[in-house]
Each structure stands twice: as structure tokens, then as C-alpha cells.
Write a structure and sequence with these properties.
Blueprint lengths: L1 H16 L6 E2 L4 H11 L2 E7 L7 H10 L4 E7 L1 H13 L7 E4 L4 H7 L6 E2 L18 E7 L1 E5 L25 E3 L5 H14 L1 H8 L4 E3 L4 H7 L7 E5 L9 E4 L8 E8 L6 H11 L2 H5 L28 H7 L1 H15 L13
Parallel strand pairs: 1-5, 2-3, 2-4, 8-9
Antiparallel strand pairs: 4-12, 6-12, 7-10, 7-11
The structure holds 2-acetamido-2-deoxy-beta-D-glucopyranose (NAG) (4 copies).
One 2-acetamido-2-deoxy-beta-D-glucopyranose binds next to strand 2 and strand 3.
Length: 355
């Protein structure tokens, strides 16, 4: 495999100097790709970033329903662990992952420079916002993730519902906050970084004085506050979608900044099931899947019901997280500053029973 892909790279380089485009540009219909993927074996192995093992079950079900005969073998784990394991497979020349969707946005340009990614432009590639994609198609945003204010409406009255980050310092939230360790998840670290740049480290010290419960995983706070009997009532380090759901309600700050980013996907150059991987990326970028997934990575689709597009949404800068992630030295400095104040993340990864 390796020698073939090296040869492909050399030919690609020659093609560039000859003025040809080296990316594989998709022109087939989804049904034609489906036929090719079934002929190849009908399987696609996806490693997806996340912190609960069921987080991509909706994608698995939608994909397998839409494409009979296909199996989406999806494994969810923290992006910061998936990437190292992918590096191990790449180093051993023994890759069985076909595609990955991760929050570790800094990995993608590195993998591209190592010729580990397939330059491939899915059908909707031209419609993906330029800021979210590699020009050759080595990687691209697949959906938008974000944090929001979330509270349990049975525990927080409407007048106290949080909107700005300073609201969490009010007495009503003493002993009531469940928050993900910022030193355990870089997208949470960035959320705290944005808040502290605006309100200062005093805000963080005042937050600690509220005695929040620090947890691992970004789904854990929402789970804790949704319980009707527990004392935890609010968080700003989870994402549950854009509308209220059960006992939980959602708001977004307009003075403060909430974190949003394009969860980014790529197909590996040596993917054992390239047609299955292509079918998957074309499906997640389709109208059908994008319209059902909150904010879209495509500029030709409107914002979700009641919201503008992510670029027009007040209170967030969807391109800023990538720059944050690329500066690893700054991320590490920040992480240790949090660790010094609140200690190392305690407890097992919420996915540990998966390993
Ligand atoms: C499915 O994924 C798991 C975990 O990544 C892997 O161990 C297993 O071999 C995969 N199954 C197939 C059929 O590829
Ligand atoms: C609290 O509620 C959860 C379900 O939401 C239940 O599993 C748990 O046993 C309850 N705890 C107490 C002390 O009632
Ligand atoms: C949810 O919060 C919004 C404010 O962000 C409010 O307008 C709405 O009425 C709330 N919905 C519920 C069900 O509490
Ligand atoms: C958003 O963030 C990017 C990258 O950090 C920056 O270049 C840009 O100016 C920001 N946009 C706005 C509207 O602040």
C-alpha cells in the first residue's frame, strides 16, 4: 500500500507541474457511489471524535437506512486519543480506519503534509465555506459543533436563566454548576480562554468560589443537570442542539463569545474502503444530512430554524478555534494554568469502558 501511495504522490507531483489538478473530483451520484461501495465490501470504518460511545448512532442509523447493504462501523472516542492511535496505524503501515471526523483541527494539515490523506472533493465540496476546507479536498468541515448555555428549567426559574458568562457568578448558581475540566478538552479550554480574555482571571477565581463540579467529558454536565433530583442545574461546556429538549433549555450569549467550530473530516490515502468512505462523506455533506444537523458547513444552505448561518450568528467566531488549536504551545500553557488552579482531571474517561 505504502509504495503504491508513494508512487501516486510522485505522479501527483508531476501532474501538478504539468498543470493538472491532482484531486479526485466526484461526479457520480450517491446511488452510483453506493454501488461501488457495496462492491468493495459494504463496510466503512469511521473514527469520530466525541465523549460518549453512542454519540454517532444517529449518523450510523441514517447512513445504513439510506444505503442498504452498508455497515458504518463507527468508533467514538476523544479526538486527542483517536489521533495518536491513527498515527500508530500510519507508522505501522497497517491502517484499517477509512475516515475520521475530529475536533483536533491541527492534525489535518500535518497528516496532509505526510501524504496520509486522500485529496478528494465530494459532490458538495464547492459549497463548503472556504474557511472550512483544504483547497485540494484533503480535509473539510463536516458539521458544526458548539457549546451553549444549558439549564434545567425545573431548577432555574426563567428570570435567572443564564445568558452571559457573568450570570454564572450569581448566588443562584452556587453549588449548582457542572462543568467539563478545561484542562481535559481543548474546545472547553478555548471556551474558558474566550471568557477570561473578556472578563479576566478574576472571573475564573469567582467561578471557582461558586464550587462547580468538574467532570470529564462534555456530555456529562448535560446529563447531570437533566436529572430531576440532583442539585446540578446549569452548564456552558456542553452542546445539546439549538432548541430546548425535555427539562433542558438553551441560550447563546451575545456580549460574550461561545465556541463553535467545523468538526473536520478526511479520508485516508490508504483507506481499505475508499468507496465506502466517499459514500459517507458525500452523505454527511448532502442536503438531507446537513439540514438535519443544526448549523451547516455549506454556504448554500440557510441557517437552521430560527437561526442565521453560523457566520451570521452573534456571539461566535466559527473560524477562531482552528487558529487556537494550531498554536500548541499556547494551548499547553493555558492547560497548565487551569490545572494549577483546579487540579488534574479526575476520574476515568467517560469512554473508558469502550477500550
Ligand atoms: C470495527 O471497528 C473496530 C474498532 O475500531 C475494529 O476493532 C473492528 O475490526 C472493525 N470491524 C470491521 C468489520 O472492520
Ligand atoms: C436520581 O435520578 C436518577 C435518574 O434521573 C436515578 O437513577 C437515581 O437513582 C436518583 N437518585 C436518587 C437519590 O433518587
Ligand atoms: C427557553 O429559553 C428561552 C430564552 O433563551 C425562552 O425564550 C424560552 O421561553 C425558554 N423555553 C422554555 C421551554 O423554557
Ligand atoms: C475570527 O477569528 C479569525 C481567526 O482567529 C480572525 O482572523 C477574524 O478576524 C475573526 N473574525 C471576527 C469577525 O472577529
Amino acid at each position: 500500500m505504502r509504495s503504491l501511495s508513494t508512487l501516486g504522490f510522485l505522479i501527483g507531483s508531476l501532474a501538478v507541474s504539468g498543470g493538472y489538478c491532482t484531486a479526485d473530483i466526484e461526479t457520480r451520484s450517491l446511488d452510483q457511489i453506493h454501488e461501488a461501495a457495496k462492491a468493495e465490501g459494504g463496510v466503512v470504518n469511521l473514527w469520530a471524535g466525541g465523549d460518549e460511545k453512542d454519540q454517532q448512532n444517529g449518523l450510523k442509523e441514517a447512513f445504513e437506512t439510506r444505503f442498504p447493504g452498508m455497515t458504518l462501523n463507527v468508533t467514538v472516542d476523544l479526538s486527542k486519543y483517536h489521533d495518536g492511535r491513527i498515527d500508530e496505524q500510519l507508522a505501522a503501515n497497517n491502517l484499517y480506519v477509512d475516515a475520521t471526523f475530529l475536533q483536533s483541527l491541527h492534525d489535518f494539515p500535518r497528516w496532509k503534509s505526510e501524504n496520509a490523506l486522500l485529496n478528494y472533493q465530494p459532490l458538495e465540496f464547492k459549497n463548503i465555506f472556504d474557511q472550512f476546507k483544504d483547497s485540494e479536498g484533503a480535509y473539510y468541515g463536516v458539521f458544526i459543533f458548539s457549546w451553549s448555555n444549558i439549564w434545567n428549567t425545573g431548577k432555574v426559574d426563567a428570570a435567572s436563566a443564564p445568558k452571559e458568562y457573568t450570570d454564572y457568578l450569581k448566588p443562584v448558581f452556587k453549588d449548582k454548576l457542572a462543568l467539563t475540566y478545561p484542562n481535559d478538552d481543548d474546545a472547553v479550554a478555548f471556551q474558558f480562554d474566550l471568557i477570561i480574555k473578556q472578563y479576566g482571571w478574576q472571573w475564573f477565581d469567582d467561578l471557582i468560589a461558586q464550587n462547580p463540579r468538574w467532570v470529564r467529558g462534555t456530555a456529562t454536565p448535560a446529563t447531570l443537570i437533566s436529572s430531576s433530583n440532583g442539585s446540578y442545574a446549569a452548564t456552558f461546556t456542553s452542546g445539546i442542539g439549538l432548541t430546548s429538549s425535555g427539562s433542558l433549555n438553551v441560550s447563546f450569549p451575545t456580549q460574550g463569545q461561545f465556541v463553535s467550530w467545523p468538526q473536520t473530516g478526511a479520508i485516508f490515502a490508504d483507506a481499505p474502503h475508499p468507496e465506502g468512505a466517499k459514500l459517507l462523506t458525500n452523505f454527511v455533506l448532502s442536503d438531507e444530512y446537513q439540514k438535519a444537523s443544526g448549523w451547516s458547513v455549506r454556504r448554500d444552505l440557510p441557517g437552521p430554524s430560527g437561526y442565521p448561518t453560523i457566520f451570521d450568528m452573534p456571539g461566535t467566531n466559527v473560524t477562531a478555534f482552528r487558529d487556537f488549536m494550531l498554536d500548541r504551545a499556547a494551548v499547553e500553557r493555558l492547560r497548565f494554568r487551569f490545572e494549577d488552579k483546579i487540579g488534574t482531571a479526575q476520574g476515568l474517561s467517560p469512554l473508558v469502558d469502550d477500550l
